[in-house]
What we know:
five-stranded antiparallel beta sheet; homodimer; eight-stranded antiparallel beta sheet; 19 strands
Amino acid sequence: MTTTQGRAATGLSSxxxxxxxxxxxxxxxxxxxxSGREYGDPFTFAGWHSRxxxxxxxxxxxxxxxxILRLAGRxxxxxxxxxxxxxxAYGGSAPRxxxxxxxxxxxxxxxxxxxxxHAVARVEPGVRFFDLYEHLRAGGHRLWSxxxxxxxxxxxxxxxEHGVGYTVHGDHAARLCGLEVVLPDGxxxxxxxxxxxxxxxxNLHPRGFGPTFDGLFGQSNLGIVTKAGVWMMxxxxxxxxxxxxxxxxxxxxxxxDAVRPLLLSGVMQNPPAIGHPAFIAGLVPGAPSRSEVHSGxxxxxxxxxxxxxxxxxxxxxxxxxxxxxxxPIVAARLAAVRAAVAVIDGxxxxxxxxxxxxxxxxxxxxxxxxxAGIPSLDLMKALDWYSGPGGGHLDFSVVTPLRGNDITxxxxxxxxxxxxxxxxxxxxxxxxxxxxINVMQLYFHPEDEATVSRVWELYPRLVRxxxxxxxxxxxxHLDFMDVGAEQFxxxxxxxxxxxxxxxxxxxxxxxxxxxxxxVWPAAHRAG
Amino acid sequence: MTTTQGRAATGLSSxxxxxxxxxxxxxxxxxxxxSGREYGDPFTFAGWHSRxxxxxxxxxxxxxxxxILRLAGRxxxxxxxxxxxxxxAYGGSAPRxxxxxxxxxxxxxxxxxxxxxHAVARVEPGVRFFDLYEHLRAGGHRLWSxxxxxxxxxxxxxxxEHGVGYTVHGDHAARLCGLEVVLPDGxxxxxxxxxxxxxxxxNLHPRGFGPTFDGLFGQSNLGIVTKAGVWMMxxxxxxxxxxxxxxxxxxxxxxxDAVRPLLLSGVMQNPPAIGHPAFIAGLVPGAPSRSEVHSGxxxxxxxxxxxxxxxxxxxxxxxxxxxxxxxPIVAARLAAVRAAVAVIDGxxxxxxxxxxxxxxxxxxxxxxxxxAGIPSLDLMKALDWYSGPGGGHLDFSVVTPLRGNDITxxxxxxxxxxxxxxxxxxxxxxxxxxxxINVMQLYFHPEDEATVSRVWELYPRLVRxxxxxxxxxxxxHLDFMDVGAEQFxxxxxxxxxxxxxxxxxxxxxxxxxxxxxxVWPAAHRAG
Lengths: 527, 527
């Protein structure tokens, strides 16, 4: 039970609490204890209590969201917003500012419309990848909706955080089309064509008349998105879930350079992902455990990585990819893939073919599922492989050009910085058409303070060193949003100042998600 | 020669003029007479002088642009910005506010970089489609850059106005990646990854860290774009420039519905365009003239349209499209196209195949050229067909869902509204993946005041009637920006109010392009 004292200590007054209860009902205003089991950052040292919240509120309607924002402005309490709160490895659902009221959008979980002809859904932010998938299946829709590796997150929230999936709409931010947003003062605005009442193209055409401001609400504290159009792909006639295995560590740049023309020309339509044997081992039944692979101190040595790859019949690098189309189109695409990677000695292309309609029944492995938009939680096993059950990770996720020598430059840099830390080096790469997102996963167990501390000490050094070489974060954990933003230094940090001007104009009270991505309201900024 | 009196009459003081000359040199500050030959709106009644400018300035550097904006703020004179000034049918290079100083970016015309591996160029806004094409050819780059039907416009300016081209990057706004922008107060900001000095992914990754504000600068008066990344496609191994002809007027919805799955699944990667026989006739050597087709009063009757189509061996509707890939991929795509349109009785699929590298030498017709990104001015002939040499047009360009019955609904509506006006009904459609841009071209000769007046009277009625049915403009002529914006009425015109808040925050002096897309600075707004 919440006590007045408890709320006072974290910044929510009794009057504010009473107003929230009057607005939402007592059942939709949780105190910290009730919130804590579901919300927080599971992937940090559990003993660090720096990210406490004062309450969690659970709006159900747009009017609820408007009311919460207006109360925050009136009483001056800060809000932090999560859709499902599964932004794990980047802070989960913990806020930046201790004492914030957490706005969880889990109850706003309706799939409002599915437009089968245009392969679009309109959804609320509490809809999970699982929910949308099941909704499509139950409705008999022959549509595939892109999903990330873990399916429990919010379709909209993930896209707003620039998350990635693995169908043709794997760039999730780019597949949002048409938003409804509640601004910090409680005003509702729709983006694009939806700003015209009754417009038929709201979720179909990515722009309206005049400036396009959809992008303002991603990685942002400028508004709360309450509805979004989400593009999907029609179920293809034919689907090939494939892998390319290359034998040597030094084959990585050649693999990237071989695949780039396939992505640029649209032979491959989805984002392929390149994985490390240790990461993949967690998904292979009967694979040796981390301690069987290497029981000594420090990271897994390269010889053990190679032995593991050999034992599991993996490449030193393994890339998954997918091909979609009619059967002749898929066959022609596959021939182009084989021709492109033939330049790499020992490269192997394998895969499984499906008729599109049979994938739900027949796709068994996670790669075949996720590239067809079938969500799962299988990847949790990879986390446990490194640190045992309940393992956690912090992701250092950096954007490079899609070019072998840029990726090598980054990896060599990180390798050097990590030497002596004892941490395993495991970088997965997700390939866009012109860029790669390099996700270096730093593993630890949340109960192991020493390792967590080492990771937390290392991370900002990685951020600064990567920036000095021309590489930036694409996303960051709460604790490193400021250092991430600071690296954007062109024209004396003009981008941050621009964001601050927008923040001051749209949220003069500074109540919505202060510090999100390094953007602080005026009252919090150094003078 | 400019006189002090002339400047005073249109709002530019002698002091302001002197400061502009001091900043840019006398040769870069043109008076109205010198400007008039190159700048203005060629497609309105020439006797209406409501869009006069006070001067044209020609910056060459980012510092020049900063200086112009600062002088405008200090002296309080309004600016209107054009890249090449070829936004014809939407106002050309005339300003909304009489007496504005026209900023022409024609001298900022450098191709700064071509990244062949990633198929990206970084260009200044004065670079024309012709310039970029020639630069790529001269440099031996095997890259195709999307171009619209007329190649004399600015690559960047066209994209910022949401223009359309016909390669896989035909959605020009979506192919801009990474902007440098001068804000109204003279501050320079880069978007996305470019906001980090030396970042290697500026023009490769479409977002940075935090909110994405690139979209704010399209159809906008919030900044002047001085550099942009422009995505291109690698020269394909094989290229098929095709057409689909359907025989009957009422085949249009079936054609749209047959093609939609091909676009959604990526069988077709570029935006196809559907044309009317009369429009295409202007491009066919030896075709009968408008007066030969119909010499009576009023629009061309349907029987004459059908006769023209028959005589030229066109469909009643003719769709051009392109296929790219390896030879087997193109063959498989073509088989899918043929299968899809086989449902339409009498539909014919034809086309020409090219090896990608030979297209520059062998592509002769405008369709084969423009779908390979080869710019031309051939389409000017279509204008002259209707109204004789020097003919003009006003484009009523509306977004519908990509669905036959929506397009039929719009066309029936417009048909009804145009009955009795005597104007020809000629609607071209450009097909996106989920929407169609319906460009109804209203033809006139700029010396024919009666017809121009009729068109100008009709246009706002079309805007309002279309909006009542759920269809909005994607772009508008200067004279109809306010009525276009007014139709965005959801939440009591929240979108316009949002745009006004941004305008007030970023341009408190209200000097940059007042009224652009209906967004006026505070001083100009009704109380």
